[in-house]
Amino acid sequence: MDPYTPRARPSTRKKKLTLSAKEYTKGLESAKAGLNEPSFIAETSFVRAPLNSRVSSVGVAPKSKGKSKQHNSLDRVPLEIQEALILEDLLYVLMGIEGTYVNFHPDYSLEDDDPLQGIRFTVAPSLDTSLRDLVERILPLGMYYTAISSFIELRSHLDFGLVNHALCAAIREMLKDYQTLLSQLEHAFNTSPDFSLQKLWFYVHPTVHTLSLIYQLVLELGTADDSSNDLSSDESPSTSDAEEEARNEALGLGGAKLKAVLSEINKGDVDVTGGSGIAVKGGEVITIIYERMQNMSGDPTANALYGTLLKLAGKPYVSMLRVWITTGRLDDPYEELLLKESKFIDRGILAVDYTDDYWEKRYTLRDGSSLGTSKRQQTGVPPPRTVNGRLPGGACVPPLLEGWKHKILLAGKYLNVIRECGIEITQDRIFGDDLSMDDEKFYKVLEDAYSYANRTLLQLLLRDQQLIPRLRSLKRYFFLSQSSFLTHFLDLSTNELRKPSKSVSIVKLQSLLDLALNTDASGEDILFREDVKVTMSDSGLYDFLLKIVSVNGVIGGEDGEHEGGHGHEEPKKEKERDDKKSLTANDALALDYSVKFPLSLVISRKTILRYQLLFRFLLHLKYVEQSLSSMWIEQKTTPWRRSLPEHQDFNKWRLRVCLLRARMLSFVQQILAFTTFEVLEPNWRALELKLDKVTTVDQLLRDHVDFLDTCLKESMLTSSKLLRAYSRLIVTCSTFALYAGSFSKSANSAIAAMETSEGDLGMTKRWDILGKFETNFNHWFQVHLDCGQWSLRSFPAQMIVVIRFFALIALSSARCFAALYNDIDHLPGTHYDFIIVGGGTAGNVVANRLTENLEWKVLVVEAGPSNEGVFNSIVPFFSIALPGSPYDWSFTTTPQVALKDSMFYTRGSASDFDRFADITGDPGWSWNNLQRYIHKNERWTPPADNHDTSGQYEPSVHGFNGTNSATKELGKEFPFNQDMNSGRPIGFAARRILSASKEIILSAGTIGTPHILLNSGVGDASSLGKLGIKPVLNIHDVGRNLQEQPVITNSWFVNSNDTLDSLLDPAVAATYLDQWEMEQTGPLVDSGCSHLGFLRLPGDSPIFNEWPDPSSGKDSPHYELIITNGGRGNLPGHFIGITNAVVSPSSHYNEGGSVNLKTSDPFDDPLIDLGLLTTQFDRWTLREAVKSSRKFLTAPVWNNYVIGPAGAIQNATTDAELDEYILQAAGHASHSVGTAAMSAPAAAHGVVDPHLCVKGAEGLRIVDASVMPFVPAGHTQAPTYIIAERAADLIKSAWL
After folding, report:
1. Nearest Cα to Cα of residue 1267 among 1112, 1110, 1044, 1038
2. Which residue has the higher pLDDT, 131 or 785?
3. CA–CA separation, 1200 and 1187 (whole Å)
4. Residues 679-683: contacts with CB within 8 Å, 24+ apart?
5. Nearest 10 degrees: Cα torsion 1254, 1256, 1257, 1258
6. 899-933 pLDDT, tens per residue?
7. SS3 content of the chain, % helix, strand, coil (to 5)
8. Which of the 8 DSSP states describes residue 997?
C-alpha cells in the first residue's frame, strides 16, 4: 500500500489562519468547559503509534454495551474550531483510540463484542452537518484498523499455523505504510496552517478502500470457523481417524478420563479450533484469499492486494510442499498441508500387512480423495464448515492445487519409498525459493518433481528390483505355467501329502520343494526359487472362499450379492464342519512367496493371497484330474476289459462307471482349460501390455491388483452361488476317484461270483452306490448350469467370458461318442453337419474345434492306410524314410527334383501375416490379432534329455496349454505326431455319396485341394472344358500362384565320430533304438537338425537394383540355414550339413508355379509345376546363402573340427560354378502354398475370401496352406495351425 504523504512545505507556508493561536486556545477551553479529562485517550492496542507518546492518562473503553462516555456538545463552537477539534479526534480514531467528540459506538462492549469485528465509532450529534459527511466517511478506517490489529494479535500465534503467521506478517507490513501515513498526517496537522478535513480525506480515501479489503478478508477468516455456533466439545463432530482411535485405545491413549485430563491441561491455552474443532489455517486460508481475489478480479486494487497476500501467505505452504516433493519427508507440524501422515504405519508392518496400509494409508490426502475413483474416504476426513461447506484447515485443498493434488501426493510417496531404500535423493536444485502458487514455473517444477520421483521409483522397481521377472516367476509358480517342478514335487511328496494337514512336516515339504525347484528351475526362475515357500492353509479352499464371499460380497471388495443374515450364519456352520473333519494336506497345500521392500509394495500380502487362491484352485483341479486319470488307467485292466456277453447287467454297470468317470474327467479338464486358456493367459498378456506402457507406480499397483481380481472373477470364484454348486461338484468327483480301488475290487468279485453256482448277488448294491454318485453329480451339475443364467445377469461386462465358460462346461454334461472307421460301409450314416476332406495339419485342428459343439456331427475323410504302429512314423529320426512309402502321396513334379522333408515349427515373421491382412483387407489375419490362436494351439513339451532350455527360446511368445508342441526349434525335441486315432480321421476305399448340411471343408493341402476343386468343376472354365469336365464355377486362380521355397543341402567333412552318420552302422542304430524304446531319449528323438538360422541379404546388394524385395518387411528373412549333425549323404565319413533355403522366393512375380489336371480321371496325379528358381532373385539369393554357409564355417570355433567341403560343392568356387552347382543339386522344401489363395471379397484374383469361403459358392470353405497368398518366411506347419484355429472360430461364428 503506497503511503499518501502530504507536503509540509514549511518555506511556503501560508500565514493566513482562520483563528489565531490565542483564539484557538480560547475556543478549545470554551468547548471543554466543565471537563477535567485530557484531550488524548491512550490506545489499548498493542501497536505503539506516534500519537501514543502524547497521551497523559489512560482511558478505558466501556465494558458493557450502552455505557460509553457521552459526546461533548459542539453547539457553541464555531465551524472552524469544530473542524480543528474533529481533525484532532480523527487522528486518534485512525489509531483505534476514542476521541473527545468521536467516541465508541454506544452498543460496543469490550467484553461482549468480537474484537475481529473491529471497534465502531460515532461522532457527536452536534457536529455541523457540513463536516459530518466527510467524518463519517473516514470513521470506518478506525474500525478496519482495530479489527485488523486484533486479527494480527490473535492469529500470529503459531498454533494457527505457519500460513496464518505469514499472513499476519504480510498484513503487519502493510499496516506500517498506514502508520507512516498517520505520522505524516499528524505532522501536517501540527505544522500546516492550511491542513483541513478535506485534505485529510484526500490523503486517506485511497487507504479506506485498501483497509476495507483487508478488513473483509480478516472478517471472513475470523468467521469461517463456525465459532459463532459455539459448539461444545461434546457436540462437535469427531474428525479423528477411526483406525487411529482404535490404536490409541489399545495403547491406553483413549477414553473419556484421558480426554478430560488433556482438556484440563489445555486450559488457558489459546483456543485455535473455533467451533468446528479445526482452526482456519493452512490450505483453507489460502483458499479464502484466492476466492476473494477471483471474486474481485475486476478491481485492480483488490486483485493486487490479495495477490500479494496470497504469495506471501503461501510461502510456508509452498516451502512445505517443496520439502515433500523433493525429499519425500512431510514436515507439517500444524497440519496445514493437503497431505497427512499416519505415523502408526511404518515399514515394520509390511511382513504382516494384508491391507497394504504402508502404501495406501501412510500418506493420504486430507480431503479423502484418491486417484482413480470419485468416491471419497470418509474415515479421518473432517466434516465441512456449516457456513460455506468448505473443508476445514489442511483438508481444504487450494483451488490452484486441486488438479495437482494427486501428483503432489504421489511425488512424495514415491520419494519416500526411494528414501526408505537408502537411495540418496538429490533434486533440491529444481525448486527455487521465490516461487509461488500463482507462478507458472511453480507447476512446471511440480511436474518435474513428479516425473523425477515417478521415473526413479519405476526404474527402481522395474530394473533394479526386477519386477517383471518376478511377476513372470509368480505366474510360473502359482499359475502352473511350465510347471514341471510341481509334478516333480507332488511325486516326491505323495506320502507326506496324504497325511492330515496338522501332521505334515512343513520342513520336509520345503526340502522336497527346494529339490524340485533346483532340478527343474531355469532362466529367470533360478534367481527367485528360494523365495517360494510351502505353507498349509487353515481351511479348505472353497470353505474359505465361501466365507469371504458370503460376508463381503466378493473377493477384492467388488460389489456382489449379499446373502443377508445367512451370510453370517454360513461361516459358523462351515466352522462346525471343519471341526468335525480333518483337512488333508492335499487340500491345505499352498505356496507362499517372500519379497523385500520395496517390491513388497507391488507383491504385497494382499496380492499374494489372490495368487494363493488361484494356485489352490488350479492345484485342486490338477489333483482331481490326476485321480480320475489314475482311475482310467485302473479301468484299462482285465476286470474292466474282459468280454462277458452273458452278463449284460454287469457290462452295463461297467460302462456306466466308465462313462461317469469320463464325464467327471471332462468336467475337470474343461474347467482347467478354461481357467488357464480363457482367463489366466489372456489376462496375463493384457497385464504385460499394460506394464510395457505403465507411466506411474500407482497405475502399476492398480493394474496388478485389477489383473488378479479379474482372474478371480472370470474364474467364477467370486460368486457364492457358483461356488456352492461347484464345491459340491468337485467333492463328488474327488470322492468318486477315491472309489477306484473299490470299484475294481467289486468288479473282480463280480467276475469271480459269476463263475460260482450262486452267481453274482451284489449287483443291486453296486448299482445303488453308482446311482448315488450319478444322482449327486447330475444334480449339482444342473445347479451349476442354472447358476450360469444368474451369472449372465450379474456380470454383464463379462458376458463373453461367462458364455464361454458355460459352453465349455456344457460339454461335460453330454455323452459324446467318436469312432474310427477303416471301411466306408461301416459309417453309421451319410448325413453330417460338416465334412472335412483331409485329416492333416489343418483338417484335424478344425475337426477338433468344431466337435466342441456337441450338437454338430463332423466327419473327417482321409485317404490311405492307418499309421498306427508304423515304425517310421513313431521314431522321430526315422521319419526321413516316410517319403516314397505307402504313407506318402509320392507326387512328382514337372522336370524338378523332389527332396525329402523334415518338419520344423517356425511361424515366419510378423510382417508375413500383416501382408495377409493387407491383401485380404481383413485385420483379423494380422500378426497381433492372430496371437490368441498361436497361444491356443501351442503346448510346451520339455526336451527329451531335460536339459536347461534357458536362452534357447522365449517363453513369453509361446503358448503352453494348447494342442500342439512348439519345441521343434530347439536342439533336442519331441516332434509332435498328430494322433490319427482320435475318433475322427476316417479312411475309405469305395465311392459313396456323403452330404453336409452346413459346410464341406477342404483341407487336402496345397496340391490336394486344387486337385479336388478342378475335378469337381471349380476352376478355369476354358481349361476344364478342354479336359471334358463341365465347369460348375469359373475361378481362374484355382491351382495358380503356387509358391515354393528352393533348397540345397551341402556337407563338410568333420574331425569327429560323434555325428548322426554313425546311424548308418546297423549295430549303432540298434543300440540307439533300444535307448529310444526304453527311455524315449537319445539321438533318435531328434530329426537331425540342431540349429536354424534366418538371415537377410544386405540392403545394398546389387540384386535390389534389378528386383524388388519379395520379403514382407525388414524383419522378414530372405534365406535360411539349417544345420545338421550329419551329412545325410551316401559318402562315407562324418559330416556337418547345412541346408540353404530361399524362404522369401520371388516366383509370384512370374505368376509362380501351378497345379493342373493331367486327365479327367480324379485318381490320376495332377501336373505340378513348382516354379523353382525361375527368377534371377531366387538364384542370386540361394547362391548367397551357400556362400554364407561357407563363411559361417570359417569362424574360429570350427578350427580343427571342419576339415573341408564334401561332394560337388568343393569344386564350385566361382559364382558361375556355384550357379551351375545349384541348378544341378537344388530341390524344394515341401512348403508349397497359394493354389487357393485368399484375397479381398471384391478382388477379381484369388479363390477364397478372408473368411476362407470359396468365392461364388455356398457351403464350401478351404482351410489349409493353399489359402496363403504368399509363402511365409519360415516353415509352413505353424502358420497352417494358426490359420486352422482362426478358421474354426470363423466357422463357429457363422453357424452359432
Report:
1. 1038
2. 131
3. 21
4. 679/711, 679/714, 679/715, 679/801, 680/475, 680/479, 680/481, 680/614, 680/711, 681/935, 681/959, 681/961, 682/932, 683/707, 683/710, 683/711, 683/714
5. 100
6. 333 444 555 677 778 888 888 888 888 877 777 77
7. 50, 10, 40
8. E
Average confidence (pLDDT) over 583-595: 86
Q: Is the peptide bond before 883 cis (omega within 30 degrees of 0)?
A: no
Mean pLDDT of 814-824: 60
Is the CB of residue 201 less than 8 Å from the CB of residue 296?
no
3-class secondary-structure state, position 1293:
helix
Q: How many residues does the chain have?
A: 1296
For residue 575, give the nearest of 543, 548, 602 by alpha carbon.
543
Bridge pairing between strands 831-837 and 995-1002: parallel
Cα separation, 191 vs 244, whole angstroms: 67
Neighbours of 507 (CB within 10 A): 9
Out of 672-681, 887-896, 1189-1198, 1251-1260, the most confident range is 1251-1260
Cα 127 to Cα 79: distance, rounded to the nearest angstrom: 9
Confidence of residue 54 (pLDDT cuts 50, 70, 90): very low
Collapsing DSSP states into helix, strand and coil, what is residue 221? helix
Worst-scoring range by mean pLDDT, 257-261, 319-323, 558-562? 558-562
Span 711-718, mean pLDDT?
84
Q: Does pLDDT of 458 surpass 50?
A: yes
Of 340, 522, 350, 327, the C-alpha closest to 427 is 327
Nearest to 1041 by CA among 862, 1235, 1178, 905: 1235
Q: If you search the block for the grid coordinates 459455539, which residue do you land on?
A: 230
Query: What residues are paired with 1121 via a beta bridge?
Result: 1093, 1140
**Cβ count near 975 (within 10 Å):** 18
Of 230, 229, 240, give the one whose Cα is nearest residue 262. Answer: 240
Can you tell me the mean pLDDT for 283-294?
90
Using one digit for the tens of pLDDT, what is the confidence trace for 1153-1162? 899 998 888 8
Residue 499 to residue 585: CA distance in whole angstroms: 6
User: What CA–CA distance (Å, rounded) separates 50 from 342?
Assistant: 51
State how beta strands 1046-1054 and 1227-1228 pair. Answer: antiparallel
Residue 216 · residue 288 · CB < 8 Å: no
Residue 613 has pLDDT above 80, yes or no: yes
Give percent of the chain above pLDDT 70.
72
Q: In Å, what is the CA distance from 559 to each residue of 288, 550, 795?
A: 39, 12, 11
> Does the pLDDT at position 1249 exceed 90?
yes
Taking CA atoms, 933 is separated from 938, 1116, 1295, in Å, by 9, 21, 20
What are the E-state strand segments in 637-768? Answer: none
Question: DSSP secondary-structure letter at 386?
Answer: T
Q: Phi first, then psi: what are they for 542, rounded to 5°?
A: -75, -35
CA distance 227 to 273: 8
Cell of 1276: 509352413
3-state secondary structure 158-193: HHHHHHHHHHHHHHHHHHHHHHHHHHHHHHHHHHCC
The 3 state secondary structure assigned to 1228-1248 is ECCCCECCCCECCCCCCCCCE
C-alpha cell belonging to residue 523:
532362466
- Residue 837's Cβ-side half-sphere holds a number of Cα atoms within 13 Å equal to 20
Q: What is the largest CA-CA distance in the chain?
A: 158
Residues 96-111 pLDDT 10s: 888 888 888 887 777 7
pLDDT computed for residue 1020 by the predictor: 92
pTM, full prediction = 0.54
Residue 280, number of CB atoms within 10 A of its CB: 30
Report yes or no: 1241 and 921 within 8 Å, Cβ to Cβ: yes
Alpha-carbon gap, residue 16 to 20, rounded angstroms: 9
